[in-house]
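Problem: given the chain below (213 residues), write out its structure.
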Amino acid sequence: MENRYFYRLVFSKLGLLKYLGANDFLIFLGRALRRANIPIKYSEGYNPRPLISLGFPCPVGVESRRDYVDMTLHEEIEEREIIEKINKELPPDIRFYEGYKVKKSSLIEDTYGINYELHLFVHRENWFVSEIENINSLRDTKILVRRGNNIKEIKPFDYIKSVSYRKTKDNIFLVYLETIKLDNTILRGEEFLDLFTVKPLLMRQIREVILNV
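Solution.
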């Protein structure tokens, strides 16, 4: 029986590569692993694929300072060597910077929550400040979100751990949003903005995935 070794790697995806979707990212990464001669394990069947998987996919247009990928190798290799070899095959906007061995597990199950940094343009500063200062009054508010092909109703505050903000320049604010996973569902950064009467313009969104372990 062939040996299997499970690794979890941490990476960032910034800049223009925020427009790379999850499926394209897996194809992109699989090719980089082949070029780097990483002993990746492949699935069986007529269309074998590298055994690499993501947790909650990073939406197109969203940057990530901390995201995770799990991979299965058929040979044991030092984590540092994996990272060095992969980074040589990737553009600088994607960097792997941490890795460790794990038992076979699921990134979805291991995710505690996702933190967001939202860069916002607001037309009326006083209105925005008043609403975000009183955001806790909206704990029972429900919004409609899309999950796959379905539309569902959720309470954003079921997922929100904390909210803070600061002004950086005229009409520009940074909002820091800490969220938790609930029933294998997460709140997306842009969905938080649906709580506002006058929805701010989202200029940039950066996320950081937080694990239980």
